[in-house]
What does this fold into?
Amino acid sequence: MKRLIIALMLLSMSTPTLAATRTNTSYQRGYEKGYQDGYEAGYAAALADRNTEEPYFVLNLSSHKIHRSDCSSVNDISDRNRKDFHGSYDELLEYLDEQYPTANYSNCGRCHPERKE
It folds into this structure.
């Protein structure tokens, strides 16, 4: 009799009930779905904001080049070497003189950020 009680106790402790398994699984699926929906909504909003903004400038901190935000070279810049600047080209030059006085930044030969559009 003692062995039967111990076996039943061990069995009940190691095997979750079917109801508990369903609850945890559905909760997990709901959590993952909510997280994914929230992420996608936030990403879509960020893209919408990006598309409505005026062009801005992108600095490559490694090569010391200035790019327009719509330049194809911007996609090749790693996040750690990239700095976005929102403002006019003249404001950008003032910023560079203050923040990076010895860096000698030059304009990208593809997008020519110094040209006014």
Q: What stands out?
A: The longest helix spans residues 18-52. Strands lie at 57-60, 65-68, 82-85, 106-107.
